[in-house]
């Protein structure tokens, strides 16, 4: 899904290099200039059910509306789904959860194995250090990224909040401007930077008195996202319906 996008290109290369995986369908948005193009023996289409014919698992890095359209078709056909789309609304996330009653779905904002290890480590660090350490998260992505903060940054904030028994929605502070007064105790700052072609950087700062701990991940390419998505697809095949995260794929919880 999103076969001709940047992640689609990385995924096709990863599939071509994997002896146990075969590309059987390619989906793009209606009106895309690449519709009808042949990719590794399959024709790019804008028909989700046509692209899903014969597939065991679909992998999707596209846009929220496109994802839901394709995911509904996958549920009708019984095709497992790996979803890396970000910028989903609460209503769209709720629909994904409903569809997971019919098919197995792995949904996460970041398929990098190292990033998912970072999320795990951030939660442990926040738990060990406790509320006396202020949590701040800074992320940097390419200039074309549409959603901010990134889904990964919000997931990192949720890991901190869970470790402290907080509600991530009320604890997160995605912007600061003007005379805002002293920092609110327990708040989790989440700052988004945009520029160039950066695939993604995330830094979590746990700042105490006289010391701070920084945990960071920096991506140089998108190849590891594709590798993680294929790992999730292999794991997902044959699973019962349900909504899974990468922590399940990696055995972290």
Can you describe this structure?
This protein has 253 residues and is an alpha/beta fold. The chain folds into 2 domains: 6-111 and 223-249, 3-Layer(aba) Sandwich (Rossmann fold), CATH 3.40.50; 113-218, Dihydrodipicolinate Reductase, domain 2, CATH 3.30.360. It contains 9 helices and 12 strands. The strands form 3 sheets. It has a 5-stranded mixed β-sheet with strand order 8-9-7-10-11. A 4-stranded parallel β-sheet has the order 4-5-6-12, with helices on both faces. Strands 1-3-2 form a 3-stranded mixed β-sheet. Strand 10 (201-207) and strand 11 (212-218) form a beta hairpin. Helix 1 crosses helix 8 (223-236). The radius of gyration is 19 Å and the shape is elongated. The two termini are 28 Å apart. The model has no long low-confidence stretch (mean pLDDT 95).
